[in-house]
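At this stage, I wrote out one protein, both as residues and as discrete backbone shape codes, and that material follows here.
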Amino acid sequence: MRVRTFIRANTRLVPVPFVPEVTLYLADEPIELWELTERERGGAHLPPPFWAFAWAGGQAIARHVLDHPDLVAGRRVLDVAAGSGLVAIAAAKAGAAATRAVEIDPLAVAAIALNASANQVAVDAVLDDVLDGDGGDAQVIFAGDVFYSRHMAERVLGFVRRAQARGASVLVGDPGRAYLPRAQLTLVATYDVPVSPALEDTPVKRTTVWRPV
């Protein structure tokens, strides 16, 4: 499968609902795309196509960054579990000195590169699992919609603590997932984010941006 050709053929380049300054290659229906992706890979068991949707947590962070460019201007940014690369692209548009987006799905990495090109910004899209580290030399770290399972929440929280300990600024975005560790976070902002009915149980999700305590 030619990955970039596949992405272009099965998504549409459209503005992000809550962040219209950014356009992404997005799909309308997750299950159909997931099944198609697995068929194209010869029946291989693949992760869901998280990269093909603008998730509420990422939209909230991206909106916050574009409205507060001083958070990233002239700084090195890392977008963790980046999905479509929305947050990384918003950071680049807001004036980040360098922006890196990491994902564990090769399709997501290809989508991030396509999306960055469509928005005429430079984003270093990398296939990597960084959650056992501390974010390296990134001065600002973002993570959107990452508290969807207990295991993932524990890994993200450990990563965030290590990143903070070396002096990085961290923001996370969350639309009310079950494993959000509220007691260990400080609320920064709240947004009502339009979302795809195929992904959520409502057309608008109350979504929060947090800073670790």
